[in-house]
Amino acid sequence: MTSPASPPSRRRRGILILAFAVYLALLAWVVLWKLEVPWIGDAAGMARPIKLVPFIANGDAGASMLAELVINLVLFVPFGLFIGALAPTWSWWRAGATALGASLALETVQHLISTGSFDTTDLIVNTAGALAGWAIFLAVRHGAGERTPTVMTRVCVLVAALAVVATVAFVASPLHYGPQRDIVVQHSTPRDD
């Protein structure tokens, strides 16, 4: 008999790890390349500004659009679900720190390869999405009790499967996020008059 906070069995854990790996691969593809063919921009390695002030326009960076905020939030909810399923004894701050670390890694990579820019807004919203997923896990654990490992395995496998189906549907459709272009900020140079 397992308690609600006990880790999943070895078989369930293997299934969860596989589903989490699928989710993480799709998440990276969405964040870094918006489901387009992976590429590295010409501006990779060039010094570019980093948006340190979240949510508002500053410097060369515009304010975050509501749709982008909602998408980022929703994309990271499964992260919290998976962390809850794989590490049910963790505290909320440990789950949040893990999500923040993953988000920081993705933001840094997209900035370095010039497929996006580093934005602290994304760090905050992505972490909030993962914590929302963690809260959902806690609600499931409260309601499911000893069946939590089984329920969470099914939920996480379903989430990964839906992510694959949604990705295939998006890639096969005529819809696209937009043309990929280097993220380079053009600065005007002062003229000698």
Automatic annotation (TrEMBL):
Keyword Plastid: no
Membrane-traversing stretches: 15-33, 69-93, 123-140, 152-172
Residue ranges occupied by any VanZ-like domain in the UniProt entry: 20-139
InterPro entries: Teicoplanin_resist-assoc, VanZ-like
Pfam families per the UniProt record, alphabetical: VanZ
Superkingdom of source: Bacteria
Keywords: Membrane, Transmembrane, Transmembrane helix
Protein name listed in UniProt: VanZ family protein
Organism field: Microbacterium helvum
